[in-house]
């Protein structure tokens, strides 16, 4: 099974990665009730869950938004691109460390463009069996104006998509 996890550096995307590694690749643990029930969804059973031998590799994808060239002079744009690439590498290094801690092989993929489109294209090009994305929990108004990468991927990716919601914080009203 080929699994791709979208990573944008947010806590929500890193939670989705940990969720995927814990539940889909390693299998549920006896003491993992907090992870299994915090999503508020039914238990998801992957084929041969509990055995990560069926997962050849996890692909961690990060998409950098393109800059609007008319906003900055060329020299400033090149500097910002370099900074953006360094930030992307740092984000994926953090995600790779999570995979390493779980003893799961992972590869990284950094693309430039609209995250919604590029993630869907990558799943098709790489023949991904499952895409995992985190949910930022945008309200209806923000989602209408900003759009939702997870929602778009759920409707346009050519493979099954799991949208992982982070656990609700206790004490928050």
Automatic annotation (TrEMBL):
Provenance organism: Prunus persica
UniProt name for this protein: UspA domain-containing protein
SUPFAM superfamilies xrefs: Adenine nucleotide alpha hydrolases-like
InterPro entries, alphabetized: Rossmann-like_a/b/a_fold, Universal_stress_UspA, UspA
Residue ranges of domain UspA in the record: 58-165
